[in-house]
Amino acid sequence: MDLNLHGKSVIITAASKGLGKAVALEFVKNGAHVLMSSRDEEALKKAKAEIIEQTGKDSIEYIVCDMKKSDQIKRMVQKAVTLYGTVDVLINNAGGPPAGMFEDLTDDDWYHAFELNLLSFVRTIREVLPFMKRQQSGRIVNLSSSSIKESIDQLLLSNTMRPGVLGLTKSLSQEFGPYQILINTVGPGTIMTDRIKELNEINAKSRGVSVEQVIQEKESLIPFNRFGQPDEFAKAVVFLASGANTYITGQALIVDGGMVKAL
């Protein structure tokens, strides 16, 4: 299948590692020009070098961007336009908020989660929309969590903010559909990243059990009996963001090996 991504301009936020990096790699493999961002310049340098080594293509650049700062988001989008002439695809991504129970969370925790996991998506979409509207074409994929379908224990902040991303996706798909801008949300289930490793360690410590036991218990809940890999998640994201997707918009896709039981 031709994904029609050759030469397309793609922005991917929080892309120096984990799922964001896996998505960046998949776009470069398919001929896109990618601008990735994160707050960690050294991690970005390393990710860029690794992607170039793995693909043999140098169509990837980076910019340091704190997604809680609107001026840095503006600068990121402008760099993509300077490099590639426009923005064809936006992949919104951000690190997950910390785990915690309701009585443990402060106002600062709530504000941080709102800024990082919802408002940053709003701000970035606002910046790319003029280019997509002008060219009557665009793809936006908001990376979220399986908590948009089923709440996750000890992740109250995620359970609250992530469904907001889904509401944003559905609303904007209606508003900007006439401009041929397709907007979807993709939520990972248990995909083996540093974030999942961190959550497994927190879970194990709180229960007084081994990390290996936590992993075995979680794998038993997945019909595939294993965690997903970042490249499996990335392929789904890249398809929705590609020219091969011409009619799917406003949807929520969970990439979880069948783990979530909610309809």
TrEMBL record:
Gene Ontology MF terms in the entry: oxidoreductase activity
Entry superkingdom: Bacteria
Keywords on record: Oxidoreductase
Tagged with keyword Nuclease: no
Matching CDD domains: BKR_like_SDR_like
GO biological process: bile acid metabolic process
Record flagged with keyword Cell membrane: no
Pfam name, any one: adh_short_C2
Family to which this protein belongs: Belongs to the short-chain dehydrogenases/reductases (SDR) family.
Name listed for the protein in its UniProt record: Short-chain dehydrogenase
